[in-house]
């Protein structure tokens, strides 16, 4: 399962490697501070069983400014980058960036249909809706099994009904559905 804590730790390790290997920073790398900022106000954060070092890294977005101010006031941390250092780090990170192109057509087994062919099919609305519902449920189950998710996490029944009623003919129309 996706974990923002683990992702954050990986990012810090990559940053430390770049600072050490590419830019020559060898000291004070353990002073790099990191946070996981939760932006969604409805996200439930249960820190009850989390170790203290992890629980202290998780904050809500409205706590970010206060947390940064507290870190700045802390006299133990006196390692500050100057403007030139920040530009070097930014340039180096930009050089290491890799774009990821995701082919959603193949990932979700979508088929490109010819719109003219789909217009030739004349089926009663109820029969067509039932066929679409059946295919969408099959598609949802297939994706949920492949991605190891619950089917409702792919799309809900309400979303499926909106797609059926909207009957989108292209990706742009589909994207307009909730």
From TrEMBL:
Q: Which InterPro entries does the UniProt record give?
A: HRDC-like_sf, HRDC_dom, HRDC_dom_sf
Q: SUPFAM superfamilies per the record? A: HRDC-like
Entries under Pfam families matching the protein: HRDC
Q: Where is the HRDC domain?
A: 126-178
Gene Ontology MF, one: nucleotide binding
Report what the protein is called. Answer: HRDC domain-containing protein
Q: Which organism is it from?
A: Romboutsia timonensis
């Amino acid at each position: 399962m996706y974990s923002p804590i683990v992702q954050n730790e990986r990012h810090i390790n990559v940053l430390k490697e770049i600072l050490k290997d590419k830019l020559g920073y060898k000291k004070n790398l353990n002073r790099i501070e990191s946070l996981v900022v939760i932006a969604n106000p409805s996200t439930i954060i249960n820190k009850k069983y989390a170790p203290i070092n992890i629980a202290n890294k998780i904050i809500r977005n409205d706590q970010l400014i206060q947390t940064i101010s507290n870190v700045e006031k802390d006299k133990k941390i006196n390692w500050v980058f100057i403007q030139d250092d920040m530009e070097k780090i930014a340039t180096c990170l930009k050089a290491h960036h890799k774009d990821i192109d995701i082919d959603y057509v193949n990932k979700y087994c979508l088929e490109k249909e010819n719109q003219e062919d789909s217009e030739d099919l004349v089926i009663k609305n109820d029969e067509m809706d039932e066929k679409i519902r059946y295919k969408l449920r099959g598609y949802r189950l297939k994706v949920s099994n492949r991605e190891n998710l619950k089917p409702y996490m792919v799309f809900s029944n309400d979303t499926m009904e909106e797609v059926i009623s909207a009957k989108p003919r292209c990706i742009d129309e589909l994207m307009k559905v909730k």
